[in-house]
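Give me the fold.
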Amino acid sequence: MDITKPQFNFKLGYFITKSLALVLAQDHMKYVMLQNQVIDYTGYKSDQKFASMIRNSQIDVTNGDFLIYEHTDGLNYVNLGMEKYYSLIE
């Protein structure tokens, strides 16, 4: 893992009652697709441009022209909510 691309999740909760909590959470996620790999594929292809790359339900993405996917600005969102807890064993 590259240290310059951290991903974190944070959650803070306050129990109002024994089984009910008010929570505040933040998720900071990043997506980086590894290049030079063969990926399992299911679905429908409408464009024949890359059809030669699909064999035996797999896509060969070792060709750098096909896909380079990296979203490292992060997907940031904040949640505020209530959580209900149930005891499985008393």
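The chain has a mean pLDDT of 79.
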